[in-house]
Amino acid sequence: MIAPGFRLGWVWTKSKAMRHMITAKQGADLCTSRFAQLLVLEVLKRMDLDAHLEKVREVYRQKRDIMDRCMHRHLDGLCTWQKPEGGMFFWTKFNRPDITASLLLRQCVSRGVAFADGAAFFANGGGESFLRLNFTQSSDEEKDRGLARLATVLVRGSM
After folding, report:
1. I need a surface site. Which of 3, 5, 79, 152 has the fewest CB within 10 A?
2. Over the stretch 28-46, which tens digit does the pLDDT of each residue have?
3. Rounded to the nearest 5°, which phi and psi values hold at 79?
4. pTM score, whole prediction
5. Residue 84: exposure state from Cβ atoms within 10 A (0-12, 13-18, ≥19)
6. How far apart are CA 87 and CA 133, in angstroms?
7. With contact defined as beta carbons under 8 Å apart, do 90 and 67 qualify?
8. Alpha helices in the chain (DSSP H)
9. CA-CA distance, 3 to 77, in Å (whole number)?
């Protein structure tokens, strides 16, 4: 909500389960950067979080809608997806069962296009036919150009 790259969140609760959550969190990541925690605390003290979120939601909504239009222009028939209601990513599934995201990624990177291999997000295996596309970081032109290159690899590339 403030700086996603910090990978920092918070829990507000009066539950006795809080101490168990703290123990689990500390064991999972060996403690979050104290500097990052203090920085976010100071930002939260000084900013109007509701106004910030309203602004970010509108910016992301516009970026999402542009990405959706570009995906329809380039990937219709090649992939399926749902327009996300929140977040920063489109989850995309290949329509062809012979395509894997890991193979496609290698071919796309050489053409200047990258995405997250969906298999990395499946705890029990699977996900080879999924990819995760971020729509928040690229310009409108980069979205269109990148999706056009992705489509070219899907259509013409040797899988």
Report:
1. 5
2. 776 678 888 899 889 989 9
3. -145, 165
4. 0.79
5. middle
6. 11
7. yes
8. 18-29, 34-46, 49-75, 101-109, 140-156
9. 35
pLDDT of residue 36: 86
What is the C-alpha separation between 2 and 158, in angstroms, rounded?
Answer: 41
In whole angstroms, how large is the CA radius of gyration of the chain?
19
Query: What single letter denotes the amino acid at residue 117?
Result: D
pLDDT tens digits, 123-156: 888 899 999 999 999 999 999 999 999 999 998 8
Name the token pair of 84.
């996300």
Q: Is 123 helix (H, G, I), strand (E, B) or coil?
A: coil
User: What three-state secondary structure class fits 127?
Assistant: coil
CA end-to-end distance (rounded Å), the chain: 38
Pair of tokens at residue 107: 């071919």
CA 147, 113, 84, 61 torsion-angle sign: negative
